[in-house]
Amino acid sequence: MGRPKDNGPKLIPDKRLDINGEPLNPAARDYPSEFIQTGISAIDGLNTLVRGQKLPVFSGSGLPHAQLAAQIARQARVRGKDEQFAVVFAAVGITFEEADFFISDFRRTGAIERAVLFINLANDPAIERIATPRMAITAAEYLAYEKNMHVLVIITDLTNYAEALREVSAARKEVPGRRGYPGYLYTDLATMYERAGRIKGKTGSITQIPILTMPEDDKTHPIPDLTGYITEGQIILARELHRKGLTPPVDVLPSLSRLKDKGIGAGKTREDHADTMNQLFSAYARGKDAKELAVILGDAALSDTDKLYAKFADEFEKQYVSQGYETNRSIEETLELGWQLLKILPKSELKRIRDAYIEKYYPQE
Fold first, then answer.
1. CA–CA dist 336, 340 (Å, integer)
2. CB-side exposure of 354: number of CA atoms within 13 Å?
3. 46 and 232 in contact (C-beta within 8 Å)?
4. How far apart are CA 102 and CA 152, in angstroms?
5. What DSSP line would sit under 52-85, residue for residue?
6. What is each CA distance from 1 to 125, 128, 141, 276, 348, in whole angstroms?
7. In this predicted structure, what is the pLDDT of residue 289?
8. Quick one: which H or E segment has residue 257?
9. Alpha helices, DSSP H only, in the chain?
């Protein structure tokens, strides 16, 4: 509620704001178009985050979304701009250990110097969970639109927020909707997500990365389902990849960033970005199909090309997706790695990349 967590002196505010925010005039919105480099290849190369976007992380219970969020908070920056960058972090109903992980990670890496933290733990009142994300976004709006900062808002875990909303709604004897959640869950989530964005004439911006754990890993559950409608894509963490030891276990095929086309290309990342991205997606999908076929019919059923695609899929997961939580790759390194992996396939298979780019960027022996 704006009280210092470490029993420090009371805050003396510069300004008091309504945490429900002011509705943004749609005509005043500026189109998100600037690339944010997170240093994570699976996001930068394939599901690019753009400044002013809201890109949620769909995770499951026990998956390492906390490490991924800390890595993004630590590494994210707008390329080629020397602008002030701040992180607003809201912990909603998480355990003490998880909150402690974030605080100590921010301290260790120095990210705490540019971070504002709002913390509501699992043993705090449910009613405070409803206010926590709104307070965080209000602080972000102040930093973005009055202090001209570029703000990254990370909220974890929105599933706990929705549970608190359901609890309060039941106590108020409101008519329940799908799975007992209130019928206005969609509207309620939209009032938070839609506060991300950029405003014409202002340099500051708000980019949101809400994190939610899907109950029973179910994408059709009301919380991820409604979130997917409101936000511009999603990053999905897969349990199968986590079991294989991939870090971070980002499942690139169902993941999506609807604004990625606006934030990549010449002058933003590199001219060959879109083509290589499409080729990597296509090759990985075909490689996974080939591996499934081999499980049913045996390796003998695969053609020589299919075997190369299967090999590509394995190497892609090992080298491109799995990079650890401490590696910070520039977009150039990510694109070069993509080209190195595409070398596994014959040149004739690179049908989604323009010949001019193959001549210019294809790795020579």
1. 6
2. 8
3. no
4. 15
5. T-B--EEE-TTSSHHHHHHHHHHH-EETT----E
6. 11, 7, 17, 47, 61
7. 96
8. strand 256-257
9. 41-44, 65-75, 96-109, 126-145, 158-171, 185-193, 222-230, 239-243, 273-297, 304-315, 331-342, 355-361
For residue 68, what are the CA distances in angstroms to 22, 107, 197, 202, 217? Answer: 31, 16, 22, 30, 18
**Those residues with Cβ within 8 angstroms of residue 354's Cβ, 6 or more apart along the chain or in another chain:** 275
Element containing residue 365 per DSSP (H, E): none
Say what the pLDDT of residue 105 is: 92
Identity of the amino acid at 320: Y
* Confidence class for position 78, pLDDT limits 50, 70, 90: confident
* Cα torsion 293, 297, 300, 301: sign: negative
CA distance 230 to 137: 17
Which of 320, 350, 352, 322 is CA-nearest to residue 337?
Answer: 320
With H, G, I as helix, E, B as strand and everything else as coil, classify residue 47.
Answer: coil
Question: Is 37 in contact with 331 (CB distance < 8 Å)?
Answer: yes
Q: How far apart are CA 224 and CA 176, in angstroms?
A: 18
Q: Which residue has the tokens 């800390």?
A: 70
Residue type at 243?
R
Q: Are 47 and 255 spatial neighbours (Cβ–Cβ below 8 Å)?
A: yes
64 confidence band (pLDDT: 50, 70, 90): very high
pLDDT category at 348 given cuts 50, 70, 90 is: very high
Segment 219-255, tens digit of pLDDT? 999 999 999 999 999 999 999 999 999 999 999 999 9
